[in-house]
Amino acid sequence: MTNSRPEAEERDFRRPPGPPPGGGPQLSNVWVYNGKAYDLSDWISKHPGGEFFIGRTKNRDITSIIGSYHRDPERIGRMLERYAVGRNALPEDIHPKANAPDFLFKEGFDSWQDTPKYRFDNKDDLLHKVKARLKEPELAARLRRMDTIFNIVVAVLAVAYFAVQGLRLFERSWMPLPVFVILMVLLRSSLAGFGHYAIHRAQKGLNKIYTNTFDFNYVALAFVTADGHALLHHPHTQSEVDIKKNVFTMMMRVPRLYRVPIHTLHKFGHTVTGMTIRLLDVCRLTRKVGIKDMYGTWGGALPHFIGSFGVRALLLGELVVFTLAGDFWAWALQFVVTLWISTFLVVASHDFEVEAEELPDSDTEDWAVNQVEQAYDLKVIGNRYIDCFLAAGLSSHRVHHVLPFQRSGFANIATEDVLREESAKFGVEWLPAKSFFTDRFPKLCRTYLLSPSREAEERNWGFIREHCSPGALKTCAVYTVQGFTGIGTV
Questions:
Q1: Residues with Cβ < 8 Å from 367, sequence gap 6 or more?
Q2: What residues does the Cytochrome b5 heme-binding domain cover (predicted)?
Q3: What is the 3-state secondary structure (H, E, C) of 54-118?
Q4: For residue 430, is it left (φ>0), alpha (ψ between -120 and 50) or beta?
């Protein structure tokens, strides 16, 4: 990841999606599918999965998105033909940085060249075999039941979330500090796990509001990470397009002894002002680009804005209420523990701490096989249904990556046997789930907390110079301020 200057990062984010980074003419209304050019402008407001997914993918190659997020991509391909512009795709049809800030990609990244090319028309590949099993009436009915049960559990967790805070505020003897912190960490992770699945559901109706529960663990801003997570990370896992592996290394600029307190202050800044500033930037961007190109209509946009601003107000309001009640340190302790456990959970399900050149080469052209090989299932206590929430939705992570359109973690658990059985027919080794605390957490601590800063590595500095040089202290100050201004890890 390039260490762009903060002002450059801000400028990149505010730039409208159309023009390429170096200026020049406005990019045409083109979406690329299987090497062909399409104009889906009139489909934005008609898309059954919500306006967001079409509006945000203008000037991108959407082949892997369509292939992975639709139960019948062949039917979608036939439907798209009415929007064909009658020619092959050209490099100038693709935004060089996928309409995302430059700082999220490695230097030299170009979306036309670096977006992986997969085909999804082989009826004998792993994805087709798994999807065929999903059509079995008994399994299809069970998946619907699992989705319903999952939603009921989420409703109970939401009630518990407000009840725990209410008890702490009004009768502390019933909610002592250690119990309060543990429960808030568990509930925030669980509700963020629901938000994780809400991001993958159709962005329609109330789900545009529910999606923002992804923010409850203080790590992300669902309004902008829905794109990076659902549309860049999932279809292109561990490739140069996968910005998720770059986002969480920004803290590596900070010297290792200062990393925990400085990154905590940085994310505190995000909570207090930074993410609201980022949302206002999105509002300005939407107005500048035009609501038609982003959402189709204002009716499609407003629930997303209302939900996102509402959750930010809720998170900030909790801080204010606990401070006024004289219980700021209870809020602060649950904030710190939630933030760091959730941050490590997010990166625990892939080998993001391993450099790309050290990863084993994947020689498969089968997209689903690649997804199984690149993702980990996680366990916290060993029960998949409980771990589905404790691990923020990642207990059956491999199923989630092969079938990202499934609506709940419980449905993924119910599908795991199918994916394991079909994967075995393709010679794919099915590894046991990895323990978050005993396997992944120690490795992540070594990478994200104990390794030298980027500057110290590049300049071969020793421990003292890494922490005492004027440049290191300036980096800490700048990174802290960036959190309050909405620049940083999301």
A1: 64, 67, 68, 118, 120, 125, 127
A2: 32-89
A3: HHHCCCCECHHHHHHHCCCHHHHHHHHHHHEEEEECCHHHCCCCCCCCHHHCCCCCCHHHHCCCC
A4: beta
Question: Three-state SS for 404?
Answer: coil
Over residues 360-395, the pLDDT tens digits come to: 555 678 999 999 999 999 999 999 999 999 998 888
Please give the order of strands across the beta sheet that includes 84-88: 31-33, 36-38, 84-88
Cα Rg of the chain, angstroms: 22
Cα(374)–Cα(377) distance, integer angstroms: 10
DSSP state of 359: S
Q: In Å, how far are 76, 320, 353, 389 from 379, measured between CA atoms? A: 36, 35, 19, 10
Cβ atoms of 248 and 443 closer than 8 Å: no
Q: How far apart are CA 368 and CA 419, in angstroms?
A: 10
Give residues with Cβ within 8 angstroms of 336, minimum separation 6.
264
Give 30's Cβ-side CA count (13 Å radius): 25
Token pair 């590596």 is found at 252
CA distance 451 to 445: 9
C-beta separation of 196 from 393 below 8 A: yes
Over residues 439-469, the pLDDT tens digits come to 999 999 999 999 999 999 999 999 999 999 9
Q: Which stretches of 124-176 are DSSP H helices?
A: 126-134, 137-170
Count CB-CB contacts under 10 A for residue 210.
23
* Degrees to nearest 5, angle at CA 227 with 161 and 345: 45
40 touches 73 (CB < 8 A):
no
Tokens in use for 318? 């909790």
Task: Look at residue 431 and give its three-state secondary structure.
Answer: coil
Instruction: Report the C-alpha gap between 476 and 490 in whole angstroms.
Output: 18
Q: Taking a C-beta distance cutoff of 8 angstroms, is the pair 475, 266 a contact? A: no
Whose CA is closest to 234, among 400, 352, 440?
A: 400
